From TrEMBL:
Keywords: Cell membrane, Membrane, Sugar transport, Transmembrane, Transmembrane helix, Transport. One of its GO terms (molecular function) is transmembrane transporter activity. This is Sugar porter (SP) family MFS transporter. It is found in: Cell membrane. It comes from the Bacteria. InterPro entries: MFS_dom, MFS_sugar_transport-like, MFS_trans_sf, Myo-inositol_Transporter, Sugar/inositol_transpt, Sugar_transporter_CS, XylE-like. Pfam families: Sugar_tr. Residues 25-464 form the Major facilitator superfamily (MFS) profile domain. Belongs to the major facilitator superfamily. Sugar transporter (TC 2.A.1.1) family. It is a multi-pass membrane protein.
Length: 472
């Protein structure tokens, strides 16, 4: 399902003719990314209410929040193989169905255990969407626009995060600022989780309006249909026979890498694989998902009222979008490594300031003094901004570029798995760590941000301006 080196490309004079249609196709596929971001963040609005309703401690609460990541790992592992067997569109539809069932089930759970089950199902949908969206976009987009259209997936993720925060804020206002207040016959937190059914159904409907990937069609012998899709997205002027030959050449020259191809280094895996794992792990160990899973609860814990805490969470999401746009503008101009180092330094300072601000708490339920509270808010937004303009985008760009062709697919799979595990680790440990010492928790995250700087400088190779073959 992954794209590889291709035969020399032919001229496609009609590519721009159907650009509007191609953008629609790309946006429809990127709805999976929107749901990825939405589901990843929507639990933020329900954490405190779940704790209160089911009378659970920090450890159990963390498991319910983080368990979706176990489903995500399963979905990511299954998504690629399913797409090669059933087609890209069918996997989108399966993911949409899982999202829909998860949203409905999460809105009306009978108990804590089935709420966790619905979150696992939603996580499987997330994992599938995280694999199939970028692959489909890369396979359908005209080569002249592939880079820009490929950025739709990341943009959709951060927009999904922002929309979920805005929806949570609106529902909370309708419930009078009470997460357990009633709106439309449900408690506010239940409606927050249930609203995801709307984009989930939309994703499923849009999947019926976009064509199957030409690559999959050719792999299953439907060459005429593949030509029709190519003409649909690249314009009537495209040399259809040459394009089909180009895709067939790429498929024949593909090496389907396995885990065995990654073995051989001093520590079991090849050094370049360990570097990829390091990038994935550092991306999560700075604690970025704490900002989206727990931010509302975090602000409430330091004395900010629930309505304002949701508003601050939404503004953090807007900062996330702005930082992502900045990264898209500069990643090809100043390079991956400089951007990563700048982001690490900015995150380290911001996290250290948060740690100092939270150290002013005098008790578990005490509010921060005004000065420290204001600093904590500014530092939290700065942290998200520096992450978004660097590691949020750079890691995915570098993971797609840094591995030699012969091991790229398998190495990406290992690096992605490491990222889900690190994500789970941070998510599941934060409630207990913050109950122990919130300031100390942010010191730990700041330490990882500092450690990421020498890691990048010493072990990571710059990939700006280099072909994939040069990285071998």
């Amino acid at each position: 399902m992954t794209s590889t080196a291709q035969a020399p490309q032919v001229r496609r004079p009609g590519a721009s003719d159907n650009l509007g249609h191609v953008i629609f196709i790309t946006a429809a596929a990127a709805m999976g990314g929107f749901l990825f971001g939405y589901d990843s963040s929507v639990i933020n609005g329900a954490v405190a209410a779940i704790r209160d309703k089911y009378h659970v401690g920090s450890g159990t609460l963390a498991q319910v929040v983080a368990i979706a990541l176990i489903g995500s790992a399963i979905g990511a592992a299954l998504g690629g193989r399913m797409a090669d067997r059933l087609g890209r569109i069918r996997v989108m539809q399966i993911a949409a169905a899982l999202f829909t069932v998860s949203a409905v089930g999460s809105a009306v759970p009978f108990s804590l255990w089935d709420l966790a089950l619905w979150r696992v199902l939603g996580g499987i949908g997330i994992g599938m969407a995280s694999v199939i969206g970028p692959a489909y976009i890369a396979e359908v987009a005209p080569p002249a626009y592939r880079g820009r259209l490929g950025s739709f997936q990341q943009a959709a993720i951060v927009i999904g995060i922002a929309v979920s925060q805005l929806a949570n804020y609106g529902i909370l206002q309708a419930a009078g600022g009470n997460q357990r207040g009633h709106v439309l016959g449900l408690e506010a937190w239940q409606l927050m989780l249930g609203v995801m059914v709307i984009p989930a159904v939309l994703y499923g409907l849009l999947s019926f309006a976009i064509p199957e990937s030409p690559r999959f069609l050719i792999s299953t012998g439907r060459t005429d249909r593949a030509k029709a899709v190519i003409a649909e997205v690249e314009g009537a002027g495209a040399d259809l026979d040459a394009r089909v030959a180009e895709i067939e050449h790429a498929m024949r020259s593909e090496h389907r890498s396995t885990f065995k191809d990654l073995l051989g280094g001093r520590f079991g895996l090849l050094p370049i694989v360990w570097v990829g794992i390091g990038l994935s792990v550092f991306q999560q160990l700075v604690g970025i998902n704490v900002a989206f899973y727990y931010s509302s609860t975090l602000w409430q814990s330091v004395g900010i009222d629930p309505s304002s805490s949701f508003l601050y969470s939404f503004t953090t999401s807007i900062i996330n979008i702005i930082g992502t746009v900045v990264a898209m503008v500069f990643v090809d101009r100043i390079g991956r490594k400089p951007l990563a180092v700048i982001g690490s330094a900015g995150m380290a300072i911001a996290l250290a300031l948060e740690a100092w601000a939270f150290s002013a708490r005098t008790g578990a339920d005490s509010a921060l003094p005004h000065g420290q509270g204001l600093l904590a808010l500014i530092a939290a937004h700065a942290f998200v901004f520096f992450f978004a303009l660097s590691w949020g985008v750079v890691v995915w760009v570098m993971l797609g570029e840094m591995f030699p062709n012969r091991i790229r697919a398998a190495a990406l799979g290992v690096a992605a798995a490491a990222q889900w595990v690190a994500n789970w680790l941070i998510t599941v440990t934060f409630p207990s760590l913050s109950s122990w010492n919130l300031a100390g928790t942010y010191v730990i995250y700041a330490a990882f941000a500092v450690l990421s700087i020498p890691f990048v400088l010493k072990f990571v190779r710059e990939t700006k301006g280099k072909s994939l073959e040069e990285m071998g």
